[in-house]
Amino acid sequence: MSSRVRKDKNPHRKTWAVLFVIVSLFCIIFFAAKGRFQAPANSKAVSLVLSPFQQTAAWIGGQLDYVTSTIWDIATAHEQNKLLRNEVEQLRIQNLEASEAMAENERLRTMLGYRQMTTQFDLVAARVIGRESATWSRMIVINRGQKDGVDVDMVVVTADGLVGHIVEAGWNTSKVQLILDPRSSVGTIVQRAESRVAGIVQGDMNNPTMPQMVNIAKNADVVEGDVIVTSGFGGIYPKGIVVGRVSSIENDAGGLLKIGLLETAVDFQKLEDVMVITASREAPPEPIKPPVQTPGTETDPAAQAAEAKAAAAGENQR
């Protein structure tokens, strides 16, 4: 009983299904036979009947094409974006490597120029590979040691000026005490010819970046802006290496001496490459030129030779 009621609820379902099948078959036959025969009388009627189906099919086909092309474009754009990101990352790495290589090349060129100018020094190039973090200690570690001819008390410099000296020399690494260390002591002198005041440069625990030039007499000729170089006193540091420039002058606690605060020639925050002086020779003195003398004087060797030659010729004539 229930199944019969259920069938009675949809009496037109079979009718609509049959009509749909008939229309579908008609469409298939029409499209298959289109162009093989002419039906001028019924062409308008057929077109009118099939027009909604054609429009629907065309719309569905267009939408499918649009969706397909959109999905393809999205997939292609995603892949291209991925490739472009990888390329940008590679170019960024190459740019960083090129910049680092240029900076290193510039440093090495500067070091080579310094080596060519300071012929009185035998130099070994080294790279900073470590720093001590203690606040009271100013130490660096370099990648050169005894196998490279580096030993204790050898001086470390850059093209800008004095860095410090070796305090520990291992087989392939060494530890350098900077002039910023409070335990460091460097004999120095004012480079200005009118002054030539001597003093000692040592690190300041209260001002880690600016060492002090101490033991300066209160009336000594030292002013702001004076260039301070090594004096050669003490037997470690050769003479004439730039230490820094006087930034300011202060009186010491007793009031009898002055203290000069120095702005170092070397930028220790950017210290990467250094040179170790493995041997030092005084620059050869310029040849002494004899003074210009009046011909015929006893101190003129040429005049003496000419006079002796003339005397010998006169005796032969006699």
Describe this structure in words.
The protein is of the alpha+beta class. The protein has a domain at about 120-280: Rod shape-determining protein MreC, domain 2 (Thrombin, subunit H), CATH 2.40.10. It has helices at about 1-10, 15-35, 45-115, 300-315; strands at about 120-130, 140, 155, 160-170, 175-180, 185-190, 200-205, 205-215, 225-230, 240-250, 255-265, 275-280. The strands form two sheets. Strands 1-2-5-4-3-12 form a six-stranded antiparallel beta barrel. A six-stranded antiparallel beta barrel has the order 6-7-8-11-10-9. It is elongated, with a radius of gyration of 48 Å. The model is unreliable at about 1-5 (pLDDT under 50).
Topology:
Blueprint: H1 2-9, H2 13-33, H3 43-117, E1 121-131, E2 139-142, E3 155-157, E4 162-169, E5 174-178, E6 186-190, E7 198-204, E8 207-217, E9 227-230, E10 242-251, E11 257-264, E12 273-280, H4 301-317
Function: Involved in formation and maintenance of cell shape.
Transmembrane segments: 16-33
Keywords: Cell shape, Coiled coil, Membrane, Transmembrane, Transmembrane helix
